[in-house]
Amino acid sequence: MRHSTFKALSSLSAVRNLANFVQIVEVGPRDGLQNEKTIVPTSVKLKLIEMLSDCGLSKIEVTSFVSPKWIPQMSDQKEVMQGITNKPGISYSVLTPNLKGLEGALASGANEVAIFAAASETFSEKNINATIDKSLDKFRDVCKHASTNNIQIRGYVSCVLGCPYEGHILPKAVIKVSEQLLSMGCYEVSLGDTIGIGTPGSVDTLLREITQFIPADKLAMHCHDTYGQALANIMVAIMYGIRTLDSSVAGLGGCPYAKGASGNVSTEDLVYMLHGSGYETGVNLKKLIEAGNYISEFLQRQNGSKVSKANSKL
Ligand SMILES: CC(C)(COP(=O)([O-])OP(=O)([O-])OC[C@H]1O[C@@H](n2cnc3c(N)ncnc32)[C@H](O)[C@@H]1OP(=O)([O-])[O-])[C@@H](O)C(=O)NCCC(=O)NCCSC(=O)C[C@@](C)(O)CC(=O)[O-]
């Protein structure tokens, strides 16, 4: 990380002087659960989504319209969409890899979809069975159809700081894919550190390059916490002016096609850090902790949020 970034990070007043609302995109019901081996009943997913909807979160990624052979955990996507009690002001988005997925999403009443590309050729093939170029062709079709149906489209780029198969990924590969996603109609691109390998230094290097081509308000950060770097990495993203952050309640998650990747940064820990640093999120931390405890108890798993653990000892 550059000296100037360290200097800025050390000054909380500098942090507070920046626009202070941070948009959280809760990905727990989708990214958080997609890797669970035991199928989580639809009713539990719906209860989790309801609890998250009561926390003040305005963007929740709830399921994905992908092949049930590839991601069995998401095969109840229609039932999930039909069972949600839509709360005004909340966007319930879904992942769609192709036109078949988009058709399913539209039929289920989705008003926002996310397409997901990668900066690594091998990861793209392992995850969606297509080269990067082929996947972008499919996404272009999805975008055309989505925009004629007035559907908002978000883009993801996976492996922005490293790939489980190819190792180091160059910023120029990330920039190339991100620019294409934006040009086909995505309103923003979420930069995925899929295997949580990034550090504040590598995030700084990536963002210094990418923000020369893409403004920070078109970018989001999606950090996994495999190496315990996610919050530090996010703070660097904030210093670059990024104000949209993805996270998963109770730190659940991981992509089944990214071996060894652990959960996303926990939403509870993210909210605690942001509120403590003078940012607003609109999220009620107490209710969020309850939602994280609910799903952790169901999965019979220790809650992955440090804030929740600390809170239970108070
Ligand atoms: C993209 C495909 C479908 C290609 O998979 P494919 O096998 O190449 O697909 P195909 O077009 O050859 O079709 C094969 C079969 O799949 C069906 N099919 C085809 N499309 C669909 C669909 N949309 N929904 C339901 N079924 C579908 C299709 O109808 C056919 O059925 P069959 O005739 O054999 O019965 C597959 O690879 C897939 O579903 N991949 C999804 C993988 C995935 O969801 N990964 C996790 C999400 S990405 C992630 O977690 C990273 C992220 C976003 O969080 C950010 C980060 O952390 O980096």
Molecular structure report:
Pfam families: HMGL-like. Residues 22-289 form the Pyruvate carboxyltransferase domain. It comes from Oopsacas minuta. The longest helix has 17 residues, at 132-148. The chain has 314 residues and is an alpha/beta fold. It is globular, with a radius of gyration of 18 Å. The chain is built from 14 helices and 8 strands. The protein has an 8-stranded parallel beta barrel with strand order 1-2-3-4-5-6-7-8, surrounded by 7 helices. The chain has helices spanning 3-9, 12-17, 28-32, 42-53, 77-83, 99-107, 121-128, 132-148, 171-183, 200-210, 230-239, 267-276, 285-299, 306-313; strands spanning 23-26, 59-64, 91-95, 112-118, 152-158, 188-193, 219-223, 244-247. The protein has a single domain (20-313), classed as Alpha-Beta Barrel (TIM Barrel), CATH 3.20.20. Helix 9 (171-183) crosses helix 10 (200-210). 3-hydroxy-3-methylglutaryl-coenzyme A is lined by residues 31, 34, 64-67, 70-71, 95, 97-98, 100-101, 116, 127-129, 156, 158, 192, 194, 222, 255, 257.
Question: What is this structure, in a nutshell?
Answer:
With 314 residues, the chain is of the alpha/beta class. It has helices spanning 3-9, 12-17, 28-32, 42-53, 77-83, 99-107, 121-128, 132-148, 171-183, 200-210, 230-239, 267-276, 285-299, 306-313, and strands at residues 23-26, 59-64, 91-95, 112-118, 152-158, 188-193, 219-223, 244-247.
